[in-house]
Amino acid sequence: MSYFPFLSNDQVRFFHDNGYLVIKKIIAAEICFELRKRALEIGNSLRTDWDKAQFSTQNQTQHSNAYFLESGDKVRVFMEEGTQPPENIHHINKIGHALHDVDPVFEAFSHQEKWDRIARDLSFKQPGLLQSMYIFKQPRIGGAVNIHQDACFLYTDPITVVGFWFALEDTDLENGCLWALPGGHKAPLRKRFLREGLETRFEELDAQPMPATGYIPLPVPAGSLVLLHGLLPHYSEINRSDRSREAYALHIIDQQAYYPANNWLQRAESLPIRGF
Ligand code: FE2
Predict the structure, then answer these.
(1) CA dist 152 to 189, 202, 229, Å?
(2) Which of 103, 162, 165, 161 is nearest to 137 (CA)?
(3) Up-side HSE of residue 36: CA atoms within 13 Å toward CB?
(4) Handedness of CA 68, 69, 72, 75 (dihedral sign)
(5) Is-contact 92 138, C-beta < 8 A?
(6) In terms of Cα–Cα distance, which of 20, 77, 23, 37 is closest to 246?
(7) DSSP string covering 93-152, please?
(8) Measured in angstroms, how far is the CA atom of residue 200 from the centroid of ligand 1?
(9) Rounded mean pLDDT of 160-164?
(10) To pair with 246 at 20 to 30 A between CA atoms, which of 10, 35, 80, 222?
């Protein structure tokens, strides 16, 4: 299938060399506003779920519960770890994991031809929208996310996952911008996050530790897109500011790759993975 490239050769080369690519201000301010407004509406509409799940950004194996494991093809709300009832809207950590399929506003934003062109520029043959997350990174309490590789959670064979991380607000050192290890995607996947029945666990694949140094901050203005290779070690710090750092992350896999039945994220047959 022919298509018009979106990225320049230099941008594609930069991504393959470094494992990430920043494209500043690719989304209009009005769209950022619309997505933020919609996320707030969804968060409020899921009020009855607020007491169901606290999200630990530090210890993912705490998610050995049906509420989390069933969220792969639903829109569910996860609260900030350590918050106490009564929960309020400012305690929401994130909403996931199928906004791109279930919510009309996020569906329209996610399924765009330009994202498809970017995916194909990065060598995808049959891009599939596997997962979406709306991340609030709330003022003062938005938790840190430890160093990880996205392919740990969204594994395919061969590894194909790429994160499309959209900053909907300005991100900086104070409000918990992304940090990434340039070139770190050239090292192997260290572990996989598996489901076993109603439990989850990590399986070690490679014993070499994740580098502890060499990371650079990726502060970006609102409306920017950060592309993240699935093997790239990255993290974010706690939000120390009194500003939120809202972001929408879409994870794409190649549908031609093998998707294991013991990946934590499973979708109902009635809602199969789709392309852009
Ligand atoms: Fe990530």
Answers:
(1) 7, 9, 12
(2) 165
(3) 21
(4) negative
(5) yes
(6) 37
(7) EEEEE-HHHH-HHHHHHHS-HHHHHHHHHTT-SSEEEEEEEEE---TTT---EEEE-GGG
(8) 18
(9) 98
(10) 10
The structure tokens listed for 212 are 């502890």
Residue 1 Cα to ligand 1 midpoint, Å, equals 30
CA of 235 to the centre of ligand 1 (A): 7
Say whether pTM exceeds 0.85. yes
Q: How would you classify the pairing of strands 199-204 and 92-97?
A: unpaired
Q: What is the rounded CA–CA span in Å between residue 104 and residue 18? A: 34
The CA distance from 270 to 19, in Å, is 34
Ligand 1 center to 149 CA (angstroms): 6
> Which protein residues have their CB within 5 A of the ion that is ligand 1?
150
Question: Any residues with CB less than 8 A from the CB of 113 and at least 6 apart, and which?
Answer: 276
pLDDT mean over 68-79: 91
Q: Give the pLDDT score at 114.
A: 97
Torsion angles phi and psi, residue 180, rounded to 5: -140, 160
CA of 93 to the centre of ligand 1 (A): 14
Write the pLDDT tens digit of every residue in 44-61: 998 888 877 766 655 555
Sign of CA dihedral 85, 88, 94, 97: positive
What whole-number distance in Å separates Cα of residue 44 and Cα of residue 21?
33
Across 173-179, average pLDDT: 97
Cα gap 102→271, rounded to integer Å: 9
Average pLDDT of span 99-126: 98
Calculate the alpha carbon distances from 181 to 14, 106, 134 in Å.
13, 29, 23
